[in-house]
């Protein structure tokens, strides 16, 4: 699989040049629309959790939060050491839960204003794969789950700190940008 386009969600303007190089023959306004659609598809990526797709909604994040709450409660109760690492600054236990996401074709097409030719191009590009670079505030579900007060929802003080990560389940990949540079996301294994 060859990723054709890299998209830094912290610097979405760089996607324009990537689209221009990949999709020759498009007018600059169409290039800008496709680049914006790619950015929006990454920012509003849908969560694929326990066989259910959760589209990002600014007014209703409760269904995914309640679905993830079950796993958070299980981790708090289990003492599962496999996902735990100690923080470098404290003795606090940190558990990382990775949420599977898929670039949102629906959110990307909303930017295109009903242009079917560009919608087909967007679908093709997303199918071929986009390499998204992001920070903790760039992808909607990642940001939303990081800000949930899990102590309140679990009914008490949590013994472990929950950190969330994201991983694409389609041909797109995600790399988190941090203060020390890039953090490579785990690559998915291909079924034989």
Give the helices and strands as they follow along the chain. EHHEEHEEHHEHHEEE
- The helix count comes to 7
Strand content: 25-35%
For the secondary structure, the number of strands is 9
Which descriptor suits the 3D outline?
elongated
- The end-to-end distance, rounded to whole angstroms, is 15 Å
Uncertain residue ranges = none
Largest sheet: 5 strands, mixed
* Overall helicity: 25-40%
Mean pLDDT: 83
Radius of gyration: 18 Å
Task: Give your account of this protein's structure.
The two termini are 15 Å apart. This protein is 39% helix and 25% strand. The radius of gyration is 18 Å and the shape is elongated. Strand 8 and strand 9 form a beta hairpin. By secondary structure, the protein is an alpha/beta fold. The strands form two sheets. Strands 2, 3, 4, 5 and 7 form a five-stranded mixed beta sheet that branches. It has a four-stranded mixed beta sheet with strand order 1-6-8-9. The mean pLDDT is 83. The protein contains seven helices and nine strands; from the N terminus they run βααββαββααβααβββ.
């Amino acid at each position: 699989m060859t990723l054709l386009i890299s998209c830094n969600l912290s610097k979405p303007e760089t996607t324009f040049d990537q689209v221009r190089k990949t999709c020759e023959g498009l007018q600059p306004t169409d290039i800008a629309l496709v680049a914006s659609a790619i950015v929006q598809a990454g920012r509003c990526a849908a969560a694929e959790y326990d066989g259910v797709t959760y589209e990002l909604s600014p007014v209703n994040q409760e269904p995914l939060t309640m679905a993830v709450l079950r796993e958070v409660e299980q981790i708090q109760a289990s003492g599962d050491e496999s996902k735990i690492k100690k923080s470098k600054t404290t003795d606090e236990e940190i558990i990382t839960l990775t949420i599977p996401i898929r670039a949102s074709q629906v959110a990307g097409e909303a930017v295109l204003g009903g242009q079917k030719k560009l919608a087909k191009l967007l679908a093709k590009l997303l199918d071929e794969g986009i390499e998204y670079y992001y920070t903790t505030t760039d992808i909607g579900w990642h940001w939303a789950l990081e800000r949930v007060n899990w102590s309140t929802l679990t009914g008490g003080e949590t013994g472990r700190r929950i950190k969330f990560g994201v991983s694409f389940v389609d041909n797109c990949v995600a790399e988190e940008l941090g203060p020390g540079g890039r953090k490579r996301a785990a690559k998915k294994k291909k079924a034989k």
